[in-house]
Amino acid sequence: QVQVVESGGGLVQAGGSLRLSCEASGSFFGINAMAWYRQAPGKQRELVAQITRGGTTNYVDSVKGRFTISRDSAKNAGYLQMNSLKPEDTAIYYCNVIVLSLGYWGQGTQVTVSS
């Protein structure tokens, strides 16, 4: 009963920036946590960043200092600001929303970083 939609992906040159959005809708009272994952072709899906209901954030080492996760609890929305993008950041980025004890996935948004 939770729908998740990502947006904001695209094609950028190395060193550029993108801002991804994650919006959740449906019948629920609040989001316990939100996370961004990414999956490159032939690779396993990896956790990129997460934020809890209390605002605690965590990042995979490869994006620390470049990516920032944030949230707008009133709008049931989250964001991933990606700066200084590198070709190795190329992947489909997925938002995962935790409501109660269940996780809900969006359809993903493609991020492509060219050299």
Count of DSSP E strands? 11
Instruction: Give the class from helix and strand content and strand pairing.
Output: mainly beta
What string gives the helices and strands in order? EEEEEEEEEEE
What are the low-pLDDT stretches, counting only 5+ consecutive residues below 50? none
Mean pLDDT: 96
The fraction of residues in strands falls at over 45%
Whole-number radius of gyration?
Answer: 13 Å
| Morphology call | globular
Characterize the biggest β-sheet. Answer: 7 strands, mixed
Distance between the termini: 41 Å
Q: Helix count?
A: 0
Helix content: under 10%
Q: What does this protein structure show overall?
A:
By secondary structure, this protein is an all-beta fold. Helices cover 0% and strands 58% of the residues. The chain has strands spanning 2-7, 10-13, 18-26, 33-39, 46-52, 57-59, 67-72, 77-82, 91-99, 102-105, 109-114.
How is this fold's topology laid out?
Blueprint: E1 2-7, E2 10-13, E3 18-26, E4 33-39, E5 46-52, E6 57-59, E7 67-72, E8 77-82, E9 91-99, E10 102-105, E11 109-114
Parallel strand pairs: 2-11
Antiparallel strand pairs: 1-3, 3-8, 4-5, 4-9, 5-6, 7-8, 9-10, 9-11
Index terms:
single chain, four-stranded antiparallel sheet, 11 strands, mainly beta
Question: Quick recap of the structure?
Answer:
By secondary structure, this protein is mainly β. 0% of the residues lie in helices and 58% in strands.
